UniProtKB/TrEMBL annotation:
GO cellular component term, pick one: nucleus
Coiled-coil stretches noted in the UniProt entry, renumbered to this chain: none
Species whose genome carries this gene: Puma concolor (Mountain lion)
InterPro entries found in the cross-reference section: NTAN1
Region of interest called Disordered, as start-end residue ranges on this chain: 1-31
Organismal lineage: Eukaryota, Metazoa, Chordata, Craniata, Vertebrata
Record-level Gene Ontology MF annotations: protein-N-terminal asparagine amidohydrolase activity
Protein name: Protein N-terminal asparagine amidohydrolase
GO biological process assignments: ubiquitin-dependent protein catabolic process
Length: 238
């Protein structure tokens, strides 16, 4: 899921294990069952002040109708008058092949200057991929790791319990890993099993986060350099 505003974008799902995002061609201003307040206009006044209207783009691969309505309902309960621009979930991002379901599109990107959303794939999934994936595989919830105001990635500090039977899973073949460690084994991208094995190896080496992963129990910070590459920067007070 990705939400974009006039100031930047917020990735509400850490790009780790088992996450899905997609974009179909359909956009909806008002889902019939949600009562979502999606009135026209980019600006509104509150208390005599003019402010930008928050924009919401909701995108996902496999998302149940119940969860879809729950998420939209949560935004409907917010005090802000949110503009739902894109709703691309469930059947809107689904294709069927031999009676099996697959997302139409697996990945998207957003231009935070123009708010344009377009199809994308990511061979490089960002800094500390194994560390972030380890947190997700051990049950960590979806989180935002990007701060649009500082233009920094903030990773951790995290904590997790040792992954059960990690040696057993590392001995399994690709088919067993795919069928048992994926919620949608038929629809996974080609790199999925390799990614899981790499994450399991990381968890074996680091059964629980230590000072070696997060020195001084501080977050790991990254910011893009002039070449557009993520570069590690010192944490405050380090």
């Amino acid at each position: 899921m990705l939400a974009a505003t006039g100031e930047g974008s917020v990735d509400t799902g850490d790009p780790g294990v088992g996450t899905r995002a997609g974009l179909a061609t359909a956009t909806h201003d008002k889902p019939a069952q949600s009562g979502f307040r999606a009135r026209a206009g980019l600006w509104r006044k509150r208390g005599g002040t003019e402010r930008a209207r928050p924009r919401l783009d909701l995108l996902s691969g496999f998302l149940t109708s119940t969860l879809k309505l729950f998420i939209v309902g949560e935004f409907d309960r917010q005090e802000d008058d949110i503009h739902l621009v894109t709703l691309c979930v469930t059947e809107l991002n689904d294709r069927e092949e031999n009676e099996k379901h697959f997302p139409i599109i697996y990945g998207i990107a957003v231009n935070i200057k123009t708010a344009e959303i377009y199809r994308a794939s990511f061979p490089d999934r960002g800094p500390e991929e194994e560390l972030r994936a380890a947190r997700a595989l051990t049950g960590g919830p979806m989180i935002s790791i990007y701060d649009a105001k500082t233009e920094q990635l903030r990773i951790g500090p995290y904590s997790w319990m040792p992954f059960p039977h990690v040696d057993f899973w590392l001995q399994q073949d690709d088919k067993q890993i795919l069928e048992n460690l994926s919620t949608s084994p038929l629809a996974e991208p080609p790199h999925f099993v390799e990614h899981i094995r790499s994450t399991l190896m990381f968890l074996k080496k680091h059964p629980s986060p230590t000072n070696a992963l997060f020195p001084g129990n501080k977050a790991l910070l990254y910011k893009k350099n002039e070449d557009g590459l993520w570069e590690k920067i010192p944490s405050p007070g380090s």
